[in-house]
Amino acid sequence: MSGSAGLILSSYAAAPALDGWNPEAEAALLHAAARLPGVSGLEIPFYPTGQLHKYDGDWFLEQVRHLPDHLAFVVTTIPDTMSRLDGSADFGLASLTAAGRQAAVARAAAAAGAVRTLNAALGRQAVLAVHLYSAPRPVSHGVPAGSAGTGPLAASLEQLAAVGWDGARPVLEHCDAAKPGQTPVKGFITLEEELEAVTTSGTGTGVAVNWGRSAIEGRNGSAADRHIGECLDSELLAGVVLSGCAPVATRFGEAWDDCHVPPAPVEPASLLTPAAIRSVSAALESTPGGPNSEVYRGLKVSAPRGSSVARRVGLLSDSIDVVRAAGF
């Protein structure tokens, strides 16, 4: 896959809706983000309400009808997953409890329903992938939580293979795994366990690497390279999402938090430097035309609370410039 491929932009992470509901500001950000140079699609969240917008799913469906026709979409179920975990520590596709696992399968099936609704609204199979997660957390902030395993995860993926995804591919997005002596942010199972579960399931489920979440797990900027390499070797890599993090507090969040810090030099403290991005780009270029040639490339950037729409769009635009210049 060449570096000229378009970006799937997670503009929702920088959207005004994270501060409150302002339809005019939200629409301005959405339409501006969708038209930024180099953007070929948007990552959009699936919420506990069953909608694809935090405040108004019908409003969102009306807005996307007026976005450029070439856009693809990736749906992330992370907001729904984290909300469900707050209510039940056993919730998750990898849960060792039947109730926790079946609840997660049901929510993933609901996300597939949202995919069908979006595709119907646009009159095409616009959704490229749906990001799923290997919850529950084995440990939450040092305290034992739900129990997770590769067998249940494989079983869940097998069940979900029978769901009507309407052209979208189920993809496990790796999050920081729980590690001894380290407080996790997401704290799900390891990448190696996820790859094992996907392989065992035989379902064709993909795996995506989120650069920042891998860096949070490894406490360094090289962890994502290792994870990308493992996924390439397994021929399961579906996508790579560039989302930064920092070892110190920034205007975007606390140290080692999953707060989608923009790349350096947009945020100077970010570990997601041009050199780190070039390393990712080189890895993706290493298998031209091979089984990993259709890997999609994402960018997830947040904005400080209270930012104007212009500032939010500027952060997205500046970040795109950095990653494109680094060949991503």
UniProtKB/TrEMBL annotation:
<dbReference type="Pfam" id="PF16154">
    <property type="entry name" value="DUF4862"/>
</dbReference>
<dbReference type="InterPro" id="IPR032344">
    <property type="entry name" value="DUF4862"/>
</dbReference>
<protein>
    <recommendedName>
        <fullName>DUF4862 domain-containing protein</fullName>
    </recommendedName>
</protein>
